[in-house]
Amino acid sequence: MEKPALEVQLKTLPNSPGVYQYFDKNGKILYVGKAKNLKKRVTSYFNKNHDSHRIGVMVKKIREIRHIVVASETDALLLENNLIKKLQPRFNVMLKDDKTYPWICIKNERFPRVFPTRRLIKDGSEYYGPFTSFKTVNTLLDLIKGLYKLRTCNYDLAEDKIRQGKFKLCLEYHLGNCKGPCEALQSEEEYNENIEAIRQIVKGNFKDSLQRFRNQMKAHAEKMEFEDAQRIKNKIDVLENYQAKSTVVNPKINNVDVFSVVTDEGYGYVNFLQLSHGAIIRSHTIEMKKKLDESDHELLELAIVEIRQRFSSNSKEIYVPFKVDVGEDLKITVPKLGDKKKIVELSERNAKYFRQERFKQMKIVDPDRHVNRVMAQMKEDLRLSKEPRHIECFDNSNIQGSNPVAACVVFKNGKPSKKDYRKFNIKTVEGPDDFASMEEVVFRRYRRLLNEGEDLPELIIVDGGKGQLSSGVKALDDLGLRGKIAIIGIAKRLEEIFYPEDPIPLYLDKKSETLKIIQQLRNEAHRFGITFHRNKRSKAALNTELESIPGIGEKTVVELLKHFRSLKRVKEATIKDLSEVVGASRAGIIYNHYHTE
């Protein structure tokens, strides 16, 4: 797949949190960074002069930008750490060492200890995190320490050793911080109940603990101990903002490959995430052209084999959104919930963003290909017999039947063709009758196109539900165009799309390009129609008031409004000002009308 120019890559970045990677002309990684908003952060590198010589040199070398979209800024922070440690980019200074973010460990031992650590040791212990700040870890451990008495010594508290009296109570017991399991003063069962409660706290289920903190804060405040109350309030704030789980890292998920696929009518986009010891160490998306209208299953199976060969992957397990047959000695997992499911969703999100960016890039680099693709997609989504290259959309505007008008907007190749827009004064309908108005304007529009030998559209859209659609269909019937032009209605509330003689509406994907174009047509028709209606109403209101003055006709009204620009200025004008425009006689009539009490 040919890489688009750097300017195009910058224009199509998403406004989402994530991690970005810079590569040079040889595909060698230069830098890994994190961002709350990828587009703003990455664009900033190219929009200013850098104080740092190192950054200036790096920016000159950048030829390709890749990124991984994640759910939150915290995830971006953790993923950046993993990638820098794995890839060791030349221009990164921080995070290259073997230090990592802290975890909370519940040790695999009798009477388990609970402590913070930066190292994960595979000895069956439980690790929770990682945490992006030691402040959160310390707050959680303070909370645990305040609620439960746990040992801090590193004795091997085997049952026979305790029975033989090999250990003596330490200072922690005498200070009231430990219940003395080393001398059998606390049962293993009671201790393990505390450990289970602690597990719930580090998983984020600390509703009871928060309530206890709030009660303590209130008690301190009532005793005027405001510093102590503030200290506890700070702890509450940290806990409320604490996110117990991160999709990016989970030590229980070992070496695994994750795949997902997103497709449209001509291409498939397959994302690959590589996990090592629970951390994402690679993300890559490929675009695959469909040759024989392959299914999602077939595309994903082809991509899995190709990607695993390309990256020499030896993982024995893969996570996928649905069952696939890849003909290898592989464990295939289709996760249904939990962190495994979140990892697959993260992969799908990256595939969708990649597809959107390719669309945007194509729009800039190869607009014809983009238009062809969108038209083919619309034809398929709307079940049409031919591509809707020429679309017309109708909308009625009236307020309680006054000044009824209608608008017709025209899109060609998915873009507004403003020179072809038309507005209609409703002539044959009395009162607010949207259905009859719709029938009149559709009939008038296509009778005229037929008479003048103009091109007819491939698709007509009427703004409204079944009633307006039926009116449009009747007009086409009267002109003998039924079946020659596709016609649909769009109802505002649920964005339902109605077809003639089909009681069940069509619901399009809310993010689909087809629905976006239909909504754009509908909104443009509404804007165009309402502007025409307001202008007509205002003009009518002005004319009516001045024309109601005995002895003043339409010609005089036009001269007055042309000169004074508004009714208010006409009212405030002196006899002299009025005389200069319409003569002394009529000036006197107008002045007296507004100034005689």
From TrEMBL:
State the InterPro entries in the record.
Answer: GIY-YIG_endonuc (IPR000305), GIY-YIG_endonuc_sf (IPR035901), GIY-YIG_UvrC_Cho (IPR047296), RuvA_2-like (IPR010994), UVR_dom_sf (IPR036876), UvrABC_protein_C (IPR050066), UvrC (IPR004791), UvrC_RNase_H_dom (IPR001162)
Q: Name all UvrC family homology region profile domain ranges.
A: 272-471
Q: Which SUPFAM superfamilies match?
A: C-terminal UvrC-binding domain of UvrB, GIY-YIG endonuclease, RuvA domain 2-like
Protein name listed in UniProt: UvrABC system protein C
Q: Which family does it belong to?
A: Belongs to the UvrC family.
Q: Does the keyword Flavoprotein apply?
A: no
Key word Cytoplasm present: yes
The entry's keywords? Cytoplasm, DNA damage, DNA excision, DNA repair, Excision nuclease, SOS response
As for what it does, the entry says:
The UvrABC repair system catalyzes the recognition and processing of DNA lesions. UvrC both incises the 5' and 3' sides of the lesion. The N-terminal half is responsible for the 3' incision and the C-terminal half is responsible for the 5' incision.
- Self-association state and partner proteins as the record states: Interacts with UvrB in an incision complex.
Q: Which PANTHER family match?
A: UVRABC SYSTEM PROTEIN C, UVRC/OXIDOREDUCTASE
Recorded hits in Pfam families, A to Z, give: GIY-YIG, HHH_5, UvrC_RNaseH, UvrC_RNaseH_dom
GO term, biological process aspect, one: SOS response
Record domain GIY-YIG: where = 15-93
Q: What GO MF annotations does this protein's record show? A: DNA binding; excinuclease ABC activity
Instruction: Classify the main location.
Output: cytoplasm
Cellular compartments per GO CC? cytoplasm; excinuclease repair complex
Q: Any idea where this protein resides?
A: Cytoplasm
